[in-house]
């Protein structure tokens, strides 16, 4: 059995958007296999900006799309099964492609275990002079 073309099409359209200075967005069907901020879900769908400038550690694999992004000033880890992607499109033009939702096999893992060799990012460790969370802020130093 051959693999699905869906992840390849998503990666290709993502690259096309970036090459043409467009902002790639995906529409995702939200269920128990997706790990997204539920407060932004409407009618079991969420629209996510997957541009490199809006995400950190973006990975578009054959089974999962994962990244970190800020929602309301808070960094959140996002995990989306590729089968739950309903479309990818350029925000500026609306050009893109729609897909059928493909259910994951029941015996599939909920999400892959994080890699131990991934380096920590700047946002992972607040450090002594950085706030531990919430909105970014500036203060006057005299």
Report what the structure shows.
This protein is mainly β and 142 residues long. It has one helix and seven strands, in the order αβββββββ. The chain has one helix at residues 6-19; strands at 24-29, 45-49, 56-60, 64-71, 74-81, 85-90, 96-98. A hairpin with a 5-residue loop joins strand 6 and strand 7 (96-98). The termini are far apart. Residues 116-134 have low confidence and may be disordered.
Secondary-structure blueprint of this entry?
Layout: H1 6-19, E1 24-29, E2 45-49, E3 56-60, E4 64-71, E5 74-81, E6 85-90, E7 96-98
List its salient traits:
7 strands, 1 helix, globular, three-stranded antiparallel beta sheet, 142 residues, four-stranded antiparallel beta sheet, mainly beta
The chain-level structural class is mainly beta
What is the number of beta strands? 7
- What is the overall shape? globular
Mean pLDDT, to the nearest integer, reads 83
Summarize this entry quickly.
By secondary structure, the protein is mainly beta.
